[in-house]
UniProtKB/TrEMBL annotation:
Cross-referenced InterPro entries: Malectin-like_Carb-bd_dom
Species: Rhynchospora breviuscula
Positions of the UniProt region annotated as Disordered: 295-315
Lineage: Eukaryota, Viridiplantae, Streptophyta, Embryophyta, Tracheophyta
Cell location: Membrane
Protein's UniProt name: Malectin-like domain-containing protein
Cellular component terms (Gene Ontology): membrane
Domain Malectin-like: 31-292, 314-381
Membrane topology: Single-pass membrane protein
Keyword annotations of the record: Signal
Amino acid sequence: MKFKMLFWCLFLLGISFGVHSQPDSLGFISIDCGLPPNSTYVDKITNLTYVSDAQFIDTGMNHNVSGVYITSGVSKHYYDVRSFPTGPRNCYTLRSLTAGSKYLIRTTFMYGDYDGLNKPPIFDLYIGVNFWRRVNISDASKLYIAEVITVVTNSYIQVCLLDKGQGTPFISSLDLRPLKPSLYPAVANASVSMSLHRRLNAGVDDSVLVRYPADPHDRMWEPFNNPGDWTQVNTTSSVQNPPNDMYEPPSAVMQTGSSNDPGYQIRFYWLIGAEYKSPSYFVVLYFAELLEPPPPNPNPDPKKQPKKGSDSTNNTKQFREFTISINGYDWYASSVVPQYLMTSEVYGYTQTTTYSQYNLMLAPTDNATLAPLLNAVEIFVVLSTADLPTDSGDCMFLFFLRSLYLAIAP
Ligand SMILES: *[C@@H]1O[C@H](CO)[C@@H](O)[C@H](O)[C@H]1NC(C)=O
Ligand SMILES: *[C@@H]1O[C@H](CO)[C@@H](O)[C@H](O)[C@H]1NC(C)=O
Ligand SMILES: *[C@@H]1O[C@H](CO)[C@@H](O)[C@H](O)[C@H]1NC(C)=O
Ligand SMILES: *[C@@H]1O[C@H](CO)[C@@H](O)[C@H](O)[C@H]1NC(C)=O
Ligand SMILES: *[C@@H]1O[C@H](CO)[C@@H](O)[C@H](O)[C@H]1NC(C)=O
Ligand SMILES: *[C@@H]1O[C@H](CO)[C@@H](O)[C@H](O)[C@H]1NC(C)=O
Ligand SMILES: *[C@@H]1O[C@H](CO)[C@@H](O)[C@H](O)[C@H]1NC(C)=O
Ligand SMILES: *[C@@H]1O[C@H](CO)[C@@H](O)[C@H](O)[C@H]1NC(C)=O
């Protein structure tokens, strides 16, 4: 507890110094770490303005990645990094936030051999004093993304990189996006955060990344395909979300999905990684029917008109219904019948498993004639936030010491 208090005090001291910076008109903060001080530019894909990180941190060094890693598919914010060769803990401070509000915070990393050592590091991320996740950079050209949904307790938040003695921590970009309180209600208050494991958009080509402005919340939806097995289903009609939707998937994501041949299942799995201490998962599955329902009795033949009272439309040719199981148990109690061009979501925690992986299966029911259709998936790791000290008065002595040190330091 004493140790935790010390961290908390350092946290408070850390935010006592530095320059202020405002979120933009959307409430977004988009930071290109390693960009020269006072530089800004407009990102080509999103039209969002990225700013230098100099006003959010006063430690670390700027580097450009090696030119061989700058290719057309790599966004500009990956071209440079800030690295932290000194100090066990280096933190960015994001200010002018609304205490008690919910935010999405995203960090990205591309090593790109910026230091010429060809030694990708392993380090830890913290939100303030709370462990978020480990980052294991094993491929110099790979783009790594860490994202968390969290409620801030103050008007600022710190994102910290901790040196584990396994290489120098570095960072390429840092984004903050505000979320309405009604979104992701599992993150009810500051005691629970959710770290993104995967956010997948089924049924699009591998080059398609959906984010802002198609998603007003600027979530990044990665393409999800299993080409040998799955078929792409898509529509040009937009998909509506129900009123008061808690997840608000963008239509661009819902308009595509993955299915299979009739009678077959949709299966995928995820492995329990070493990035978290003991992960427990929260999963959101997104569904919408994309195939137009068959027209009722298109060419009525008077002689073959069904008798009054009998079923005049036979939709069995196009009936989609499926169940959802994880590691063999029924994860969702009922079956799912996706509604035409209307989003529905099935969400919840997973049971802890003794396996090293989770196997999710959408299986057609006996009376279904179409295979399951999956439009999108989000998988989160649930983080329980450690108790924060409520009284910052204990920090005054340390604050005094630091002031003294600053006064006498050469
Ligand atoms: C950045 O801008 C601020 C205020 O406009 C100025 O005081 C500072 O000298 C600038 N820094 C650099 C490195 O240009
Ligand atoms: C970005 O801005 C340019 C010029 O204002 C505009 O032509 C383009 O459509 C915008 N792109 C997006 C994704 O909003
Ligand atoms: C990175 O490259 C840009 C030019 O592309 C240059 O202006 C900048 O000074 C370089 N930064 C470092 C840290 O070398
Ligand atoms: C880091 O990732 C690499 C490649 O995936 C893996 O071989 C290695 O075991 C990981 N290290 C740790 C400490 O997780
Ligand atoms: C935070 O939300 C959880 C879940 O809704 C609830 O159990 C807990 O009491 C809340 N904590 C506070 C401090 O409001
Ligand atoms: C729609 O699906 C078809 C295959 O069924 C595919 O060829 C096409 O590229 C898809 N279109 C989009 C926009 O994803
Ligand atoms: C609907 O048509 C299918 C064949 O396409 C048939 O097997 C089924 O019995 C029919 N159902 C009804 C209620 O007519
Ligand atoms: C289809 O069959 C399942 C059982 O396999 C049943 O629960 C469901 O109600 C049936 N749906 C319809 C529309 O008949």
